[in-house]
Amino acid sequence: QVELVESGGGLVQPGGSLRLSCAASGFTFGNYGMGWFRQAPGKERELVVGISSTARASVKGRFTTSRDNAKNTLYLQMNNLQLEDTAVYYCAKSRVLGWSPRFDAYDYWGQGTQVTVSS
Prior knowledge:
Elements: E1 3-7, E2 10-12, E3 18-25, E4 34-39, E5 46-51, E6 57-60, E7 63-68, E8 73-78, E9 87-94, E10 106-109, E11 113-117
Parallel strand pairs: 2-11
Antiparallel strand pairs: 1-3, 3-8, 4-5, 4-9, 6-7, 7-8, 9-10, 9-11
């Protein structure tokens, strides 16, 4: 049974940093791409950053995702957080080796973790 469990969310001030984790189980983690998505109130879910099965890390602006295949864990390092980064953050398992911005490219999702950026 596939399970993805995010952790590390919380309240942070603007300009601060936060690191999220996603513990994966029930599948061969190193064989699949992964993605981090977020959804803010009243907005559509959007891709934050993705990573392929063979990459160690992937960067998109202020966001860096990395993976430790030995620990079956995905990470999201978020730096210089802004008010507009407030959202629920989800990790998701890709259906293939790579990653995609399309929701239907992912077959399993975590329950999400809340990130609130506020002064």
